[in-house]
Design a protein that fits this description.
The structure holds two protein chains of two kinds.
Chain A: H1 3-21, E1 27-32, E2 41-45, E3 76-80, H2 82-93, E4 102-106, H3 115-121, E5 128-132, E6 135-139, E7 144-148, H4 155-158, E8 170-171, H5 186-193, H6 196-207, H7 215-219, H8 244-256, H9 267-271, H10 279-293
Parallel strand pairs in A: 1-3, 3-4, 4-8
Antiparallel strand pairs in A: 1-2, 5-6, 6-7
Helix pairs in contact in A: 5-10
Chain B: E1 2-6, H1 10-20, E2 22-30, E3 33-38, E4 64-73, E5 76-81, E6 89-94, H2 96-109, H3 117-124, E7 126-131, E8 157-161, E9 165-170, H4 173-176, E10 184-186, H5 189-205, H6 215-220, H7 227-231, H8 240-243, E11 251-257, E12 261-268, H9 274-277, H10 289-308, H11 318-322, H12 329-335
The chains are: A alpha/beta, B alpha+beta.
Chain lengths: 320, 349
């Protein structure tokens, strides 16, 4: 196993054990191993004896903050990457948690591996995978392939500049220098270059694959409305079937509802079984918010998102 | 009847089908994403993915389907039922698990007790061409769920990919209609040997056993088991596993009406959504993921076999492959049983 991940994993287990032994938390939410290669699974540990199930590697792709809504009556210790911690800060600003309800074990993140990219790079089914230094070694029935890890990262991770969690209670690894691997999200860059017509065409094509499973919504920690607009039948904001206009409506509103609230973790895109590109929209909005309001989600725990506040002195230069 | 089709003639063969039928087959929407769709050009057919994301059930029980339209004309109310399928259809390239699932759906939608005209009409007017699985995925566990990678049951014709040619079997009356198709040739004995080899290899791959047998009885005793308290925890309540499941068949009926006209539409629904069981009063008898996950598994492995003598799972593995939080239904089945299989699929448990 990659040495740095191993050290982080040890510290996660050590800290989790301490928290559970002292009964400082009711449960720990972290990542565990499961049946498929290139993947991990969210796990919930309640006793100090269980902490050895906690693992850390480049496949810990879920944003675990989404589970916190389920555990609002518990004291929770949670393993967070930079983006996950930002979601939690944003949720705290929306008063989702009681003070001291959470204990954040922050992992300065090495950026996560896009399992689908890896799967597409080989012919045949991958039966096992492991990391070695900066490589991923994948094996199937009749092949073994060594891949360069950095060539197979999620787009949201490639552009990330907040890998070290800011509001964590403890860091379980050394902070990382915050430089993006590439300057701009490749899909946002492409999207930016398009004319409005071409943008619409791209958006239309992507959303047309939607099967309305709402995995993007459920995977997102910021989607917690008691009644989502798509579920309401009175008023009936949106048709319930997969007609193109309803699919487009859903995807526009979902993205816009994240404005100034999205940490750019990419959980929505990772969850989509139809591989609909989604982060080009949310990331574009994130950059617009940064440019227009000089605001980034979940960086400080005091400033509310710009679209949730109103002041008479609001800057308005961008209204043209 | 045992025949073969040269792959050089494949597209012409598909065209010959399209002259007589509406052809439905796997189409790739994006790299790694495919589903069954009506084919306009034979070149669209893409069989690279073992499983399409959306299963073939979509052709018999579509995600969204208009049942009838209504309109007020003068003082008269007019209703038009929409079940008619105008042109005979062929479903090409469905895998044995998806085809088995169609016969499972048939038990629900077509019985002495109740007949769903929408399903029945589509089923009656469809000829099914199955495709054997030379390379089952490690997430496939059809053999544990009563099927196998080359199960012919339910297919009218069955194709097996032999590299240069497809080995073709005509299995039913509907299938025999094609015996004079000019692209079919007599199969050689060596083709049969090759088929046997492929079958043996695939059977070996899915030769492990997930303890599906007897699960109905085991679950009888597990209604209030603490098993459910833990198993649901990681489920985020999306609908992927139910929508992509070839046997899940819950639906919701809505009226989409304007002032003088409208239509009644049936859409897929999912027991994993809180909305599914929410009552008008605001009470929800399945208030948490615990009850909803229990419903999903109980329906498949307890209620369904009680009524229809068969589990409502064909072991396609889609729910394992596409779950965003990596819920593994094989593991859930194993946990209900004292028996532990020596191996299953990839990875170790």
């Amino acid at each position: 196993m990659e040495e740095r991940s191993k050290a982080i994993q040890d510290r996660i287990r050590e800290k989790a054990k301490e928290l559970l032994s002292k009964k400082a938390v009711d449960l720990i939410i972290g990542f565990g191993e499961w049946t498929l290669p290139l993947r991990t699974t969210p796990i919930f540990i309640r006793s100090p004896e269980g902490v050895d199930r906690l693992i850390w590697n480049s496949f810990c792709e879920n944003n675990l903050a989404t589970y916190l809504h389920k555990f609002s009556h518990f004291k929770v210790g949670i393993v967070v990457k930079g983006c996950d911690a930002r979601s939690i800060t944003a949720l705290s600003l929306e008063k989702r948690f009681k003070p001291d309800q959470l204990f954040l074990m922050g992992v300065p993140c090495q950026r996560m591996v896009d399992r689908r990219r890896v799967e597409k790079a080989v012919k045949g089914e991958i039966l096992c995978a492991h990391e070695q230094g900066d490589q991923i070694i994948v094996e199937g029935e009749d092949f073994k392939k060594i891949l360069k890890r950095d060539d197979f990262l999620y787009p949201s991770c490639q552009v990330c500049t907040h890998r070290t969690p800011t509001q964590a209670n403890v860091l379980v690894g050394d902070p990382i220098e915050e430089t993006p691997l590439i300057e701009t999200h490749p899909e946002v860059e492409e999207f930016d270059k398009k004319s409005p017509e071409e943008r619409w065409k791209y958006f239309e094509k992507e959303s047309s694959r939607c099967i309305r499973c709402y995995a993007c919504r459920e995977a997102c920690p910021m989607c917690y409305c008691a009644e989502c607009f798509v579920d309401s039948s009175n008023p009936n904001w949106i048709g319930k079937g997969p007609s193109p206009s309803d699919l487009e409506f859903y995807h526009i509103v979902r993205a816009y509802h994240q404005t100034g609230r999205c940490s750019g973790c990419g959980a929505c895109e990772r969850a989509c079984p139809m591989e609909i590109r989604l982060t080009y929209l949310t990331q574009k909005l994130n950059w617009d918010v940064k440019e227009l309001f000089n605001f980034e989600t979940g960086i400080d725990a005091e400033t509310p998102p710009p679209l949730s506040t109103y002041e008479t002195e609001d800057r308005q230069e961008f209204i043209k | 009847m045992k025949l073969k089709l040269d792959k050089k003639d494949f597209e012409n063969f598909l065209q010959s089908l399209m002259n007589e039928y509406d052809l439905y087959a796997p189409v790739q929407l994006a790299e790694g994403v495919s589903l069954f769709k009506k084919i306009d050009q034979p070149g669209e057919v893409n069989l690279t993915q073992l499983h399409t994301q959306k299963p073939a059930k979509d052709l018999f029980f579509p995600q969204s389907e208009t049942m009838f339209r209504y309109e007020k004309v003068g003082n008269q109310n007019q209703m038009t039922s929409m079940e008619e399928v105008k042109r005979e259809r062929i479903l090409f390239g469905a895998r044995p698990c998806d085809i088995e699932a169609i016969s499972i759906l048939e038990k629900v939608f077509v019985s002495e007790e109740y007949t769903d005209v929408y399903f029945l009409e589509k089923r009656k007017k469809t000829t099914i061409i199955g495709l054997g699985c030379n390379h089952p995925l490690s997430t496939c566990f059809c053999s544990s769920a009563g099927g196998d990678p080359f199960l012919r049951a339910g297919s009218d014709l069955f194709f097996i990919d032999l590299g240069e040619v497809y080995f073709v079997e005509l299995l039913t009356e509907k299938g025999m209609v094609f015996h004079k198709n000019k692209f079919f040739k007599e199969a050689d004995p060596k083709d049969l040997t090759l088929v046997k080899e492929l079958e043996d290899k695939a059977f070996e791959k899915v030769g492990f056993s997930i303890p599906v047998d007897g699960i109905e009885k085991r679950l009888d005793l597990m209604g209030e088991s603490s098993f459910w308290d833990r198993i649901h925890e990681k489920c985020i309540g999306c609908r992927i596993c139910t929508y992509l499941c070839p046997t899940c068949h819950c639906f919701d009926i809505v009226d989409e009406g304007e002032h003088q006209r409208g239509q009644r539409v049936r859409n897929w629904d999912s027991c994993l959504s809180p909305l599914y069981s929410l009552e008008t009063s605001g009470h929800n008898p399945r208030p948490t993921g615990r009850e909803r996950t229990r419903q999903r598994l109980m329906h498949k492995f307890n209620y369904f076999p009680k009524k229809f003598n068969q589990v409502a799972c064909v072991g396609c593995g889609r729910c394992i492959l596409y779950c965003p939080v990596h819920f593994d239904i094989r593991q859930a089945i194993i946990w209900t049983s004292p028996k532990r299989p020596k191996r299953f699929g990839r990875g170790a448990i």
